[in-house]
Amino acid sequence: MANDAFDADLIVIGSGVMGGIVASQVAKAGKKVIILEAGPRVDRREIVETFRNAPVKLSLANAKLQGAGSPFPSMPWAPSTYGDYLQYEGPVKYNTSYLRVVGGTTWHFGSALWRMIPNDFKIQSLYGRGRDWPIGYDDLEQYYNKAELELGVTGMDGQDESGQGGHPMPPRTMPFPMKQLNSSYMFTTLAEKLSVGGFNPVLEPHGRASRPYGNRPVCAGNNNCNPVCPIGAKYDGSQHIDLAERHGAKLLDNSPVYKVEAGEDGKITAVWYKKPDNSEHRLTARYFVLAAYGIESAKLLLISTSDKYPNGIANSSDQVGRNLMDHTGISMNMLTKEDIWPGEGPTELLVYLNQRDGAFRKDYPSYKIKVRNTVPTSPDDRRLHQEGHHGLQARRDDPPVFGPFAQLGDRLRTAAARRKPRHAIEDQVRRARHPGSGPLLFGDGLLECRPRPWPGRPEQDRPAA
Ligand SMILES: Cc1cc2nc3c(=O)[nH]c(=O)nc-3n(C[C@H](O)[C@H](O)[C@H](O)COP(=O)(O)OP(=O)(O)OC[C@H]3O[C@@H](n4cnc5c(N)ncnc54)[C@H](O)[C@@H]3O)c2cc1C
Ligand code: SF4
Q1: pLDDT digits over 28-82, tens only?
Q2: CA 309 to ligand 1 center in whole angstroms
Q3: What SS3 class is residue 156?
Q4: To bridge 237 with a disulfide, which of 17, 242, 309, 365 should be the other Cys (CB 3.0-4.6 Å)?
């Protein structure tokens, strides 16, 4: 138990996946844990209802780019990153959209849960770029195993995740905790077609349950992974917060920490937080974990100034808040000759990693081609809404058609495929083309596809219609 001199053995700042895992482990060990969370608790049902009732439903990337909101709350003391909370300076806009609620950003994450491959740790030695890591893949392997069990990762054993279509990679001493979900009709069809061109299909390891896992039900394939899985089949940080609380951790929500205090010896002694009524509170602990996401953690350290630490805590290097990295991306749309029916099963699963590793890394970095399985109706939804058509009536007046439409990436959804002549749809795709990218063309520009039944979840067949 906590020494009486302290309020807790451990104070965790931030209730996301990082904070939740640490808090649950330490609480399980019988220690007194307090979690301070800036945002409120959220109820999955309410988030789903808010999203369901939103007239325009956009993918996360588009929602942010097009200035649309999120179904998650924005509180004055923990504003949503979908609004103008993040102020950008400099030439590159950092279009992130982290969440500030109990459970954190994984509520709306894609849940791709990859391991690195051994060569990633030595790109200076192998490719003359960047720096080698001081440790190698083998040093981390056992921790990957532990992390995959904690998060409940679903994946395909024996795949070459270096994308070369070769032997299993990276090496694993433990199988995936859950067997991979079966591919949807669209993914299976595309994988077949694209393999002719030398593209090696890889099924992404991810956080959707393919068997009951803890409190998580099996993924029902209803394609709502972003912004929220309605049934909690996809991992999110609230699951570890529940676990921590079951083991006695105390969570204070709506409690943004605004100052970290250090003693003369440099050890952290206390944190200060505010409540919505603007009252200020101080808590002490033997240990502290700062897990408030890349941006907020740096911000908190930088604003925690004192006479001894005029540039903030833990910032003697002046590197806190610098070197922030994002994953960049471009998007392409393509049309198929026959319907391939996006929108069935998880929003992402099939990826191409041909350019994951190889001598090319001397010249340019690795990249992944992700096939997005979202339904491109949102631009038309927006138009219908602006024209005054709402709800089911709008669906009856102008039913969407999206069978022949596939997305590689998620930025260009303006080319909505509706009940229009195919040439008009093609034209829309071309016009919506992002500079530097474009529809992926094969042969005459369109794939030939044959209808085939959806293979269903593992060891289960889809009930007959
Ligand atoms: C759109 C999107 C998609 C993503 N998809 C993937 C993916 O597919 N695979 C993958 O591996 N990663 C993905 N990520 C990244 C992943 O979600 C994050 O790396 C991960 O959630 C970080 O966990 P965290 O616990 O550090 O932060 P978070 O999960 O963001 O949790 C931090 C918590 O700290 C709280 N907090 C912040 N400031 C304070 C404060 N001052 N006081 C108290 N509490 C505070 C926040 O409210 C929040 O609840 C995605 C991220 C985004 C934005
Ligand atoms: S497909 Fe549906 S059930 Fe499966 S993770 Fe996504 S939202 Fe959840």
Answers
A1: 999 999 999 999 999 999 999 888 887 666 666 566 666 667 899 999 999 989 8
A2: 27
A3: coil
A4: 17
Instruction: Classify 124 as helix, strand or coil.
Output: helix
The pLDDT tens digits for 300-341 are 999 999 999 999 999 999 999 998 888 777 777 777 778 888
| Residues 98 and 30 placed together within one structural domain of the fold | yes
Contact 104 CB / ligand 1 (< 6 Å):
yes
Closest CA to 35 of 242, 244, 251: 251
Distance, first Cα to last Cα, the chain: 58
Q: Are residues 368 and 243 in the same domain?
A: no
Q: What phi, psi does 267 have (nearest 5°)?
A: -75, 145
Closest residue by CA, ligand 1 atom 14: 109
Exposure of 290 by Cβ count < 10 A (0-12 exposed, 13-18 middle, 19+ buried)? buried
For the chain, the domain total comes to: 2
Token reading at 161: 């995740």
Domain encompassing residue 308: 1-109+236-324
Q: Which two tokens stand for residue 76?
A: 């004055």
Question: Could you tell which of 183, 223, 348 is best to mutate to test the pocket of ligand 2, judged by most ligand atoms within 8 Å of the CB?
Answer: 223
Nearest protein Cα to ligand 2, atom 8: 229
CA of 118 relative to ligand 1 center, distance in Å: 26
- Could you tell me if 316 and 346 lie in one domain? no
Ligand 1 atom with minimal separation from the 348 CA: 8
